# Entry
Amino acid sequence: GPAWTRLPDGQWYLHLFAPEQPDLNWDNPEVHAEFESILRFWLDLGVDGFRIDVSHGMVKAEGLPDVGHPDQVKMIGTEVVPFFDQDGVHAIHRAWRRLLDSYPGERIGVAEAWVPTLQRLANYVRPDEMHQAFNFHFLTTPWQAAAFRSVIDESLASAGSVGAPATWVLSNHDVKRHVTRYGHGELGLRRARAAALMTLALPGSTYIYQGEELGLPEVLDLPEEYLQDPQRLRNPDDGRDGCRVPIPWVDAGPHFGFSMPGIEQTWLPMPGSWGPLSVQSQLRDPASTLQLYRKALRLRRERRSLAEEPLTWLSSPEGTLAFRRGDGLVCTVNLTGEPVEL
# Structure
């Protein structure tokens, strides 16, 4: 929708997102002081750190120029735009890092930054800025062996160039769940399980979005009356409700044990077929997706050095990936859809 809203007194204000979310003027020192106050409030309570939403969006190009493109949303994270990823944003991050470092313990900042290149993403995790940044380039990689190898190599190189750990993420609250993106149904689930093992075998840090450890698909048939995502209201094909449906905990009963007794309905209804996907059901099944995640995570914990061990690619047939971590663990992934002899 429009980025500007006019008030009754004739003044205009900028909001890159919903009108209820006005952009603040970071040229005003009062804004910096207010944010420092908020950060200190939570740090004083003992929080371990913060995820910085739209961490690339505080500073705009001088003069607030228009983009001049009819579909700006598709440019975000792929092309240079005057309202995101401006160099001036890094001064704000450096100030926040100094604040985090002034507290005892390992208080960390994680940047949610949609930027055009992994090289630009590395700027957010330089030694005096955020500790980590979500790797959305990995998330958006198509199901192709060559594409995954390329983004893995580039991710490791760009993060390593500034001494930061690489990060890996397959889904989040803003995109369709990867079971659905990878083909939906049984095919999508098989690919999602393979992607999970590949991701958890990579060096660095992995972020798991709630429900992916259950192999949940995107809910594509939510009743119209429940769909309230403002992004969807502006573009019916771009809603995010389907990945935000609550996760099922038990096999049966109201909302599969997610909410409190007496609550008639969760904010988004859960598919009636989700009983077998529940935590309770998958804990009973040694071959379930939840058990696959638990086994893989247990292996990561047992091998404390895994995060630091280098990755070495091994030769493998076309359409597959094989790599070794250190001198022990080997991960092989078949992305072809057909059996492959190694």
In short: The first strand starts at residue 4 and ends at 6.
